[in-house]
Amino acid sequence: MERTFNQKELTRQADNGVGLVRQYIWWDRMERSPGAYDWGRMDQLVTDASERGVQILPTLLYPPKFYNSEPEGYSGAPYPPDDPQTMARFATKMVERYGTNGRFWCDPPRLPGLPPPPCREPYVPITHWEVWNEPDYKSWWKGQQSPDPAEYLELLKAVSIAIKAADPAAKIVLGSMTNTGGGTRGGYLDRLYGLGAKDYFDVLSLNPYARDVGAMVAYIRGQRAIAVRHGDAAKPVIVTEYGWASEGVHPYIVAPTPQCQGALLYAATTRLRELREELHILAAVQFQWHDVRPAGTAPWPNRTGVIGVDDQPKPSLAAYAAAANQQPAPAGMTLAEACPADRQSLDGTLQPLTVTKSGPGTGLVKGSSYRDGVDCGGDCFEELAPGTVVTLRATPDAGFSVVDWKGAACSGLDCTFRMDSPTDVEVVFAPVAAPGRYEQDHSLVSRTGRWLRSPAVKDSAGASAFATAGPATASLIFEGTGVRWLSRTARTNGISRVFIDGRRVARVDGYSQVTRHRVTLFNSADLPTGQHRIRIEFTGDKRAAATNNNTVLDAFVVR
Q1: At what angle do helices 258-274 and 213-229 cross, to 10 degrees?
Q2: Less packed terminus of the chain by CB within 10 Å, N or C?
Q3: What are the start-end ranges of the E strands in 199-334?
Q4: Is the pLDDT of residue 405 over 90?
């Protein structure tokens, strides 16, 4: 049953222009006890693929339990073998069987200086070998939030040396990188190069999932730039996974309609072909061929297929086949026809995001995009594709608070924005104000806009500050149950707004015919015990009798 299904799918793939399939190699299903190998299913796959002229790119994965380094009772992300040499031995057996001189093809194998023996036809040996999948991503490497490239390098080095010893002509494909880990400065691939990995692989690889084709291309350009910086410009890249889902939940990998999925796939496949020479693209593998699991129960990766769960072609199959065979897009399958305007980009470059922390306080800033992001404390820089939506979250240390964001229209603890250009974001931390009086120029009082100092002996500390134009705000984050706003009222004052914890609670008028000092213009009592924020805001409004519209701050008093 399984082989019949595989034969049918391989026939369908070949008929639609597929020339390469990427196949996870379940090592634990082939070596069921140390040194004992079962090649039956792999022999069937290689036979069926070769008969249809389809090349196989094997991805070496899933060590047997007796070689695995995973903790006892663990069930989750794959762990590498405890000893990299065990995978090196397995890889050697694979190459000796299915490689260019493999016994599967020629028995006895071809030997230099001797006449070639009779060999299986068609002869389609495995020439490229991928070592692991997404070692930079926690779901594929021990469940670690930040996988260590030095650990992967040990495995890559051992397996690479073994494969080259068995077949000097074989090509080692670096374990496919995620988009940010493999395509951005300071990311996993950049660090892997820094550790000396360059000599242990022949082909780069990338899974550049993105919102649109332009963002996908941006990550490939980013990976190419990393290789160039490390003196490795000549190495080709295999795009080991690309595509979009027709349903599921994800901010951008899920296309809005099946027709848009097809249009994106057509545009991406065509664009990758166009960029083949410029970006040294050796091959590209659409992920994945067939949807799995019943409808409504699958995560987005199980809906990226061009064949549905009902075994019927989705619109994306015709689109992919047209692109693979360099034919025009099917009717209704261009980006302009099938996708919204913000999904129609065809090219792009990565945009830098820099996050800085400032102020007298301390805290952490973490950001999320797809799979990776800023972790400011250690990593305050990221490169992201145009259109990526980023959410930064600031977490103050005990006794401190976030008093301001600069460079993005944000407030509170979270800051969400879209990366359409280089972006610098600054978050300002400060101590939380305890009960007491805080003058207008106190370091814990945060002011935005233009405020002018106005000395007056009768003011709280001999001076107030006033704003004459907007936007202008003054705020204080405090720990207590109440707060007062002291002001100087006068004929030159206008109307201001007052916010507590982000909610507008008052609109107050600072006008008086006679100037008065240290006036309680606003008083909020009986707040719940805890941390709060008061913000006053210049509006520009005033009563008819006022000669100006100033907002005046003398001090805040916390109770």
Answers
A1: 30
A2: N
A3: 204-207, 237-242, 281-286
A4: no
